[in-house]
Design goal:
Layout: H1 2-15, H2 21-41, H3 45-49, E1 52-59, E2 66-67, H4 68-81, E3 85-96, E4 101-112, E5 118-131, E6 137-144
Parallel strand pairs: 1-6
Antiparallel strand pairs: 1-2, 3-4, 4-5, 5-6
Amino acid sequence: MRIIQASALIFCLVAAPGVSLAADAKADVEKAYAAWDAAFNKHDEKAIGAAYVTSAKLLPPTHQVASGPAEIEMFFAGLFAGGVTGHKLEMIDAGEDEKVVFGTAKWSATGKDKEGKPSPLGGLATHVFERQADGSLKLRLQIFN
């Protein structure tokens, strides 16, 4: 039944004049990025963990894969303990089709160098989201360098 409902919704969105899934995806990804940045900048690993589906994977530059919200929370708690602050995602692009919502972004933050002085951090990130029943997005996959 859910498949029929989802198919009908997708058909209506695609067939409706003036409706753009790409535009919706970009706005939705921007909203998800803003919420994620807010949680990070509050050092709220629980809120960050809640942004991921139960089967999510986080692939950070450390090459230590985190699976599921609890492991992802621990990864970010470690960053917070290390003094990382001021996270910002700047969208490069976003889009969606019937199955996938994606976002790509530049990320920046401030860490600490060996002497404990502020040091800029940054790189690129790829995000694959699952659209939830309420229309919100949760992360299935996050890769960053």
